[in-house]
Specification:
8 helices; mainly alpha; about 270 residues; 3 helical TM bundles of succinate and fumarate reductases
């Protein structure tokens, strides 16, 4: 018995699972159009961002020294490059590089997730199931929380949008007034917990993304990731806690403190 196929029953040409890029970039930029290239970019930019987070936390520890020391630290950052290049130029170059790393990190993570969803396969090599499951539940949330916190942090302390008493060049006083507000302190705590969770998985999986797998050091990945993330968490959480406790508090305006400091140095 003959069977007549209707137009909608006719076989159609199957579409490829992974669509080729619309435009092929020249080498070595075309490496970023592959999953391996995106993993390397995400891992290397993540490594750079981890370095910034550590340096930022260490720099913030000057809050325990006092307003003058924090002011001098901020001025030292603006004077990076000495007399070779104009003031703040190198600092702005570092800021632009940090922004580029942040953008590439987000783009590579999102594009890898899309590639994984389209192909219905995991883009990462086999890993510890608990860690992978933990990441799938948290990374999609911790990333946006961190991005939102960074935007608020810049608007609050760098641009002074939310503080009528914000003073340019007084990072100690600005931080004290900001973290003295309980909602801001709570947001700071939540954001840094999210940062620690994000760092833990990022450091743990970075070795796999870069292809650094060896029975010799694989058992060290978890304690190293936990140690770095935990150290950053403890350091960052100490700031809102100490401000709320009154340990970090600006009792005298910075201008008066700087005058006293200059007089003390001149008398020596």
């Amino acid at each position: 018995m003959a069977v007549t196929l209707r137009p909608q029953d006719k076989l159609r040409t199957p579409k490829p699972v992974n669509k080729p890029p619309r435009m092929s970039l020249p080498w070595p930029l075309n490496l970023y159009q592959t999953a391996i290239g995106k993993k390397w970019v995400m891992a290397l930019t993540g490594l750079g961002l981890i370095g910034f987070v550590v340096a930022h936390m260490v720099g913030n520890l000057h809050l325990y020294e006092g307003p003058v020391e924090v002011h001098e630290y901020a001025e030292a950052l603006r004077d990076l490059g000495g007399h070779i290049i104009p003031r703040t130029y190198l600092l702005w170059l570092l800021r632009l590089g940090l922004l580029a790393m942040f953008g590439l990190h987000i783009h590579s993570a999102v594009s890898l997730s899309r590639m994984s969803a389209i192909s219905n396969t995991k883009y990462q090599a086999p890993r510890d199931f608990a860690a992978a499951n933990f990441a799938s539940r948290t990374m999609r949330w911790t990333g946006p929380i961190i991005a939102l916190f960074i935007l608020y942090h810049l608007a609050d302390l760098t641009w002074g949008w939310f503080d009528d008493d914000w003073v340019r060049g007084d990072p100690y006083g600005n931080a004290d007034r900001s973290l003295s507000r309980i909602p801001v302190a709570i947001f700071y705590v939540v954001a840094n917990i999210a940062l620690a969770v994000h760092l833990f998985h990022g450091i743990f999986s970075m070795f796999t993304s870069l292809g650094w797998n060896s029975p010799k050091f694989n058992p060290l990945r978890r304690p190293v990731a936990l140690g770095i993330a935990g150290l950053i968490l403890l350091g960052n959480l100490s700031f809102p806690i100490m401000v709320q406790a009154g340990v970090i508090e600006e009792e005298t305006p910075l201008e008066i403190l700087l005058e006293q400091h200059e007089e003390a140095e001149a008398s020596q």
